[in-house]
Amino acid sequence: MESSLFVAVVLVVAGLLTLEFRISSAIVEVVAGLLLSAFVEVEALGWLAFLAHLGMLGLMFMAGFEVDPLVLRRRWRASLLVGAASFLLPLGGLYAVAHLVLGQPPAVAALVAIGLCTTSLALVYQFLRERGLLEGDEGQATFAAAMLVDVLSMVALAILLGRLGWATAIFLVAVGPVLVSLPRFGQWVFRRYEGSPVEFELRFLLLVLVGLGFLAEHAGLHAAIIAFLVGLILSEVVQDHAALEDKLKGVVFSFFAPVFFLRAGAQIDLGSIDVRTGLLTALLLVVALGLKYLGTALFARWALGTRGHALGILFNYRLTFGIITATVGLEEGLLDQRLFTALLLVVLLSAAPPMILLRDLPSELEC
């Protein structure tokens, strides 16, 4: 009971620090989990692991929910070029480093590359919104390119983690009609029970995510993939119900997501942070930052009509998906503790350059 109370206090303090110092909540919560693990046996708290799993599903659902098909269809050629280059160049470079230099097996090297070549769609969205750039054509194309990086990252992770077989085929055949009919059925549920005091809409979404995720894992697919797909399918439906959208974001980002990030930080073994881990982190950080910058900046000026320097920095934001990939890799046995720690440190440290450098670029994204 004391440990649970301690966790609750840490979550509140982390939220307070986020508001007071305007630091990304994910960073604060991962660091808080790291510190918490020194005083509390986090792995002994079964309820925390369960809520962290729901947090991962909620985050992946929101990631799919943020993908706006209308934005993707607008100036799709330019967004496709920038997004693909921003994804593929760091993906190939990081895979080569992890496999050829670090001697990791192909599957492990691929997981490292996928986790570090992504871009935080939420932070890109926040930056564009704060600068008033989302209404402009270039801002929308930039956001679409970031969404494409997210989608490609999810597809790559699905391919890597898919233990495909007959069970997978049966699952896809059985669930396919369910996913196709989900928007219409969801629309009916949301309209019929809108404003219900028991929040039936949220319970319905929870059942869909947990139920399909459970079936997917038994069919050789990871639950995170299904959560992303459900979010993508229901994005337009949920957007028509503003109150439900606000409730959903409130539940995910105020409770489930913080627990997920807290537990991810708590899984970092402080004893594994030594000189070797530091060198590994430094190598991956330099490669990830450099290749992401080059892959984005080289094509952004020509394709989007914006200054590639700013986009090269902006697309180096990595948080949620990088942490999810590292956590899944640890759970699946692909990553050892040292590599898991290095990946999380790279994800956290890579958020510093955009936060610092973009302050001095007030109009870099404008033509």
Key phrases:
globular, 367 residues, single chain, 17 helices
Write a short abstract of this structure.
The chain is mostly helical and 367 residues long. The protein contains 17 helices and no strands.
Total number of helices: 17
Tell me about the biggest sheet? none
Overall mean confidence score, pLDDT: 83
Distance between the termini: 57 Å
> Taking Cα atoms only, what radius of gyration do you get, to the nearest Å?
20 Å
Helix content: over 70%
SSE class: mainly alpha
Beta-strand level of the residues, as a percent range? under 5%
Question: Would you kindly provide a written description of the structure presented here, covering whatever features stand out?
Answer:
Helix 2 packs parallel to helix 12 (242-266), helix 5 (76-101) packs antiparallel against helix 13 (275-304) and helix 9 (166-192) packs parallel to helix 11. The chain is globular, with a radius of gyration of 20 Å. It is built from 17 helices and no strands. It has 367 residues and is mainly alpha-helical. The longest helix has 30 residues, at 275-304.
Summarize the SSE layout with pairings:
Blueprint: H1 2-21, H2 25-36, H3 46-65, H4 69-73, H5 76-101, H6 106-116, H7 121-130, H8 137-161, H9 166-192, H10 200-218, H11 223-239, H12 242-266, H13 275-304, H14 308-314, H15 320-331, H16 337-349, H17 352-357
Helix pairs in contact: 1-2, 2-12, 3-11, 3-12, 5-6, 5-8, 5-13, 6-8, 6-15, 7-8, 9-10, 9-11, 10-11, 13-14, 13-16, 15-16
